[in-house]
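Technical appendix A lists one of the benchmark inputs used to test multi-chain prediction within the project. The record comprises two sequence entries:
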Amino acid sequence: MSGGKIFRKIFLVDLFQGLAVTFRNQNPKYIVTEQYPAERPKVAERYRGAPRLNNNPDNGETLCIACNLCALACPENLIVVGSERNEQTRRKELTTFTYDLSRCMFCGLCEDACPVDALELTQDFELASYSRPGMIWDRQMLEEGPRPKQYKC
Amino acid sequence: MPDSTFLDSTELVLNMGPQHPSTHGVLRVILKLDGEKILGTDCVIGYLHRGVEKIAENRTWAQFNPYVDRMDYVASVSNGLGYCLAVEKLLNMEAPPRAQVVRVILTELNRIASHLVWLGTHALDIGAITPVFYCFREREEALNIFEKYCGARLTTHAFRIGGLQYDTYEGFEQDVKAFCDMFPPKVDEYEALLTGNRIWKGRLTNVGVLTADECKEYGVTGPLLRAAGVKWDLRKAQPYSGYEKYDFEIPIRQNGDTFDRYIVRMQEMRQAVRIIRQAVENIPEGPIMGKVAKVIKPPVGEAYVSIEAPKGELGYYVVSDGSTQPYRVRVRPPSFVNLQALDRMVRGGLVADIVAVIGTLDIVLGEVDR
């Protein structure tokens, strides 16, 4: 064993090298912990979170044309679109829209399939519910979006 | 298994898992022990079986894409790439050049993220608690790029058959370059913490040795094979997605023990940064999606595509009967094949080594059980 090796072994050089890294990382600028309920994280613009059924901002009517493409695109078959034909305008109109969030894996295929940008995955990420039926969102819930209670500390 | 060697000792059968924190999921290992010595092991898998391959037969080609992310969930981008390449081969088409480069960048970022999870948990199993915090801090940066790019962090669903759904966001190049500048010094930090450390060396050197011949017998691939001295990397051997354009090396080591596998993976992270740097420098302009019909109907036939996932060779064998749904999707997962070698690696060793060996195998149970 060479002299350098013996020195390193006796004076625990390897351990102090590691400790130096740990102490360097004590610097407060390396703190990355998010204080979640107090500090809300800002998720990315393209984040795929809670689904939303968009309304036309001008007149408040739904953008959905009840084409059923999202329901066909969904791998889990969790979207049910209800529609009926308006006899006066001869057009299909949306009546109900059910989205089972408990089975959703947020793959974004429904969003991609939508031809009119009515269905969109938004930045809302707090989707917990106290009950299973609470995870099945109806049209009203989809249009309004989730309203999680915001805690302050 | 040989009988116990001492008169007054009895064989002890011990269940490790499925709830053991060091099995990285729900792996159950039945250990047959003679004191501290392992006489044999028996793996019980299937606790996370979801029937992914059967699910594929009831989904359209595009609909199955998000499910592959859920097999190896720490390297979901690689899984998505393998599946997309397999279906593209079936369709006899290639993704546009821009899509290929973006795919390489994201896949290599994912390789780093996957190796960081491995390093953190492996060190945690051995008893070093510090690296896991640093690794996850850096992994967060890579996941942030995924989140900004495709809107999800873990199960990304980043690629589509034929190319990409999402174009790069504004500032993508800067983010990736910033990551490339930030990351190599961090690898030096991990190496300062671990490589020279006497406890780390003592726990890893000559533990779980797997020679090159044994690797080939078991079909073991990835860093395990390269640590045994075999220069085999599918990115070089059969390049896909434009890997032949990038200049990088295949790190190899000779001993095939746990320490060598650690060194190989650390080197791989540095090489991944090298590939990302080259790729991000010249992302070509152009379309991101090839000519693919809305409803994908591949011609009758079959295709096998394998890629170099962070854990080894990840293969997809897809069979089409000409309809909108796959006739069969068979996955060749690296974790499942590598796990076979566990018994060979720990037999005759000490019971404390099994934690190190499971860590070095870098298995993900979602992929083992599928």
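The two ends of chain B are 30 Å apart (CA to CA). Chain B has one domain: 50-338. Comparable benchmark entries are summarised in Table A2.
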